[in-house]
């Protein structure tokens, strides 16, 4: 008997994907650097389906039907390269090497190009949904050659989450496209969690609502247009009481948010693309600020606040809900806009309707909202920005008064709301007729002869600031 797919790297994500594949009827060859992990999996879960135990990569390769499919599930970075280096000499043209970790898309592009030279396919797949998703149906974002997808796609689609009968897995694009889209998913995940955190802080510090009570509010919100996995688990975390102290769980957790890097990568990439992904950037910075424990302690001693002691009104809770929704929409709009920029830059034909569709189930940012986003991008004319789709421009217009009130109140109360406020600034910036960028251009021209364009004439100009301030036609140094 030969296996349809091999998995090397049997830590939790690898093990769960292997089990998911077996449960879906595929014969899975298992390999891990230390055989003990393979045996532990087999001992506990052999009932999941057909597994083939292997001890070496050679055995793993020998156990596979052709073209071979080998899924690497090791830590992103050096370990992936090391497994590829060991694997490649054992493979034959047409075989498919798959990396299911959170790899950087540029690494995936490099690996894909290197393996293509050896007539091997390299597929970088973004897998979202954590451990539970890997076992029961993740959202899967595969990038690589179309040919490799024909051989691999059916397996991935089968083990993915399904929404309305459709798999949450579709071919994303060539080389690093899958990992890129997963990276942006994570950036949105950061922003999603940050806006939830800002809402929590506003309700607690602004309206004095304790976590247990907020758990009920979030449960109610989960019945609105905010309905999503993250809102659902927010209610669970806020409703949890610490067994040791009897305090709300959130009060015994150190308020320093960790990060493994995908949010940071999203922002670095957005900066490289010139994509205004401010909500995601603010989320990453908010985590960084939260982790500066020493400076935060000193700031509490040394920096004045001058907060205003205003009482929040009756409708505050609902205002926060609306501000949360509007800010969340902006984060999605920015993330998707970044995908449009990346598609141009890296020559990917990214289908935003399909991407939004496969985020509808299995992944961390799964949300009701994605149904409408999918619809918006399936329209004959794709909106240039998600916010331009009528359903969303109307939704934001409805939320706008509340959003402005909440941001203004937060500022008065001294409650930091970096994503609520930067998303509003993005929205206002986008729709503003004249931006102070004209002044920036004037300043750049004065100190560095960087030139400018005129509103009333074609061409590129420079003012002779140090001379008689006359204007000359210039070479574009924009
Ligand atoms: C997912 C998650 C998953 C993981 C990230 C978060 O889609 O399943 O995004 O990939 O939770 O590693 O990473 P941070 O540690 O950076 O929050």
From TrEMBL:
<dbReference type="InterPro" id="IPR036291">
    <property type="entry name" value="NAD(P)-bd_dom_sf"/>
</dbReference>
<feature type="binding site" description="in other chain">
    <location>
        <begin position="128"/>
        <end position="130"/>
    </location>
    <ligand>
        <name>substrate</name>
    </ligand>
</feature>
<feature type="binding site">
    <location>
        <position position="444"/>
    </location>
    <ligand>
        <name>substrate</name>
    </ligand>
</feature>
<dbReference type="InterPro" id="IPR006184">
    <property type="entry name" value="6PGdom_BS"/>
</dbReference>
<comment type="subunit">
    <text>Homodimer.</text>
</comment>
<dbReference type="Pfam" id="PF03446">
    <property type="entry name" value="NAD_binding_2"/>
</dbReference>
<feature type="binding site">
    <location>
        <position position="450"/>
    </location>
    <ligand>
        <name>substrate</name>
    </ligand>
</feature>
<feature type="binding site">
    <location>
        <begin position="9"/>
        <end position="14"/>
    </location>
    <ligand>
        <name>NADP(+)</name>
    </ligand>
</feature>
<feature type="binding site">
    <location>
        <begin position="74"/>
        <end position="76"/>
    </location>
    <ligand>
        <name>NADP(+)</name>
    </ligand>
</feature>
<feature type="binding site" description="in other chain">
    <location>
        <position position="287"/>
    </location>
    <ligand>
        <name>substrate</name>
    </ligand>
</feature>
<dbReference type="InterPro" id="IPR006183">
    <property type="entry name" value="Pgluconate_DH"/>
</dbReference>
<comment type="similarity">
    <text>Belongs to the 6-phosphogluconate dehydrogenase family.</text>
</comment>
<dbReference type="GO" id="GO:0004616">
    <property type="term" value="F:phosphogluconate dehydrogenase (decarboxylating) activity"/>
</dbReference>
<protein>
    <recommendedName>
        <fullName>6-phosphogluconate dehydrogenase, decarboxylating</fullName>
        <ecNumber>1.1.1.44</ecNumber>
    </recommendedName>
</protein>
<dbReference type="GO" id="GO:0050661">
    <property type="term" value="F:NADP binding"/>
</dbReference>
<keyword id="KW-0521">NADP</keyword>
<dbReference type="Pfam" id="PF00393">
    <property type="entry name" value="6PGD"/>
</dbReference>
<dbReference type="InterPro" id="IPR006115">
    <property type="entry name" value="6PGDH_NADP-bd"/>
</dbReference>
<dbReference type="InterPro" id="IPR006114">
    <property type="entry name" value="6PGDH_C"/>
</dbReference>
<comment type="pathway">
    <text>Carbohydrate degradation; pentose phosphate pathway; D-ribulose 5-phosphate from D-glucose 6-phosphate (oxidative stage): step 3/3.</text>
</comment>
<feature type="active site" description="Proton acceptor">
    <location>
        <position position="182"/>
    </location>
</feature>
<keyword id="KW-0570">Pentose shunt</keyword>
<comment type="function">
    <text>Catalyzes the oxidative decarboxylation of 6-phosphogluconate to ribulose 5-phosphate and CO(2), with concomitant reduction of NADP to NADPH.</text>
</comment>
<feature type="binding site" description="in other chain">
    <location>
        <position position="260"/>
    </location>
    <ligand>
        <name>substrate</name>
    </ligand>
</feature>
<dbReference type="GO" id="GO:0006098">
    <property type="term" value="P:pentose-phosphate shunt"/>
</dbReference>
<feature type="binding site">
    <location>
        <begin position="32"/>
        <end position="34"/>
    </location>
    <ligand>
        <name>NADP(+)</name>
    </ligand>
</feature>
<feature type="binding site" description="in other chain">
    <location>
        <begin position="185"/>
        <end position="186"/>
    </location>
    <ligand>
        <name>substrate</name>
    </ligand>
</feature>
<dbReference type="GO" id="GO:0019521">
    <property type="term" value="P:D-gluconate metabolic process"/>
</dbReference>
<feature type="binding site" description="in other chain">
    <location>
        <position position="102"/>
    </location>
    <ligand>
        <name>substrate</name>
    </ligand>
</feature>
<dbReference type="InterPro" id="IPR006113">
    <property type="entry name" value="6PGDH_Gnd/GntZ"/>
</dbReference>
<feature type="active site" description="Proton donor">
    <location>
        <position position="189"/>
    </location>
</feature>
<dbReference type="InterPro" id="IPR013328">
    <property type="entry name" value="6PGD_dom2"/>
</dbReference>
<dbReference type="InterPro" id="IPR008927">
    <property type="entry name" value="6-PGluconate_DH-like_C_sf"/>
</dbReference>
<feature type="binding site">
    <location>
        <position position="102"/>
    </location>
    <ligand>
        <name>NADP(+)</name>
    </ligand>
</feature>
<keyword id="KW-0311">Gluconate utilization</keyword>
<feature type="binding site" description="in other chain">
    <location>
        <position position="190"/>
    </location>
    <ligand>
        <name>substrate</name>
    </ligand>
</feature>
<feature type="domain" description="6-phosphogluconate dehydrogenase C-terminal">
    <location>
        <begin position="178"/>
        <end position="466"/>
    </location>
</feature>
<keyword id="KW-0560">Oxidoreductase</keyword>
């Amino acid at each position: 008997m030969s296996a349809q797919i091999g998995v090397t790297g049997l830590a939790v994500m690898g093990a769960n994907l292997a089990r998911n594949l077996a449960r879906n009827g595929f014969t899975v060859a298992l390999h891990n650097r230390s055989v003990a992990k393979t045996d532990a999996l087999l001992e506990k879960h052999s009932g999941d389906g057909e597994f083939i135990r292997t001890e070496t990569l050679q055995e793993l390769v020998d156990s596979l039907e052709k073209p071979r499919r080998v899924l690497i599930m090791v830590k992103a970075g050096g370990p992936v390269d090391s497994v590829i280096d060991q694997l490649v000499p054992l493979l034959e043209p047409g075989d498919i090497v798959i990396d299911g970790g959170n790899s950087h898309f540029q690494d995936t592009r490099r690996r894909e190009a290197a393996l293509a030279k050896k007539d091997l396919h390299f597929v970088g797949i973004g897998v979202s949904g954590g451990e539970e998703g890997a076992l029961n149906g993740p959202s899967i974002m595969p990038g690589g050659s179309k040919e490799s997808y024909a051989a691999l796609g059916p397996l991935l689609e089968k083990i993915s989450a399904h929404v309305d009968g459709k798999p949450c897995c579709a071919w994303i694009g060539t080389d690093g496209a899958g990992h890129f889209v997963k990276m942006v998913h994570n950036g949105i995940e950061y922003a999603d969690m940050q806006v939830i955190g800002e809402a929590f802080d506003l309700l607690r510090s602004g309206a004095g609502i304790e976590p247990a009570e907020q758990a009920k509010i979030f449960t109610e919100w989960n019945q609105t247009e905010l309905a999503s996995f993250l809102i659902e688990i927010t209610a669970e975390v806020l409703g949890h009481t610490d067994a040791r102290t009897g305090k709300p769980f959130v009060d015994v957790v150190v308020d320093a948010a960790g990060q493994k890097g995908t949010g940071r990568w999203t922002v670095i990439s957005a900066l490289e693309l010139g994509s205004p992904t401010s909500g995601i950037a603010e989320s990453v910075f908010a985590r960084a600020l939260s982790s500066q424990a020493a400076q935060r302690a000193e700031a509490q001693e040394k920096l004045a606040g001058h907060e205003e002691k205003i009482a929040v009104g009756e409708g505050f809770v609902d205002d926060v809900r609306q501000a949360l929704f509007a800010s969340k929409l902006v984060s999605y709009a920015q993330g998707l806009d970044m995908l449009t920029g990346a598609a141009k830059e890296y020559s990917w034909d990214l289908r935003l309707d399909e991407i939004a569709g496969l985020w509808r189930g299995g992944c961390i940012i799964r949300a009701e909202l994605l149904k409408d986003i999918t619809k918006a991008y399936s329209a004959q004319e794709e909106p240039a920005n998600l916010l331009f789709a009528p359903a969303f421009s109307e939704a934001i217009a409805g939320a706008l008064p509340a959003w402005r009130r909440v941001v203004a109140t937060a500022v008065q109360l001294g409650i930091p709301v970096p994503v609520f406020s930067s998303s509003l600034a993005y929205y206002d910036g986008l729709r503003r007729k004249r931006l102070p960028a004209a002044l920036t251009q004037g300043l750049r021209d004065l100190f560095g002869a960087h030139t400018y364009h005129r509103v009333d004439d074609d061409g590129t100009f420079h003012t002779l600031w140090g001379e008689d301030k006359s204007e000359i036609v210039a070479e574009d140094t924009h």
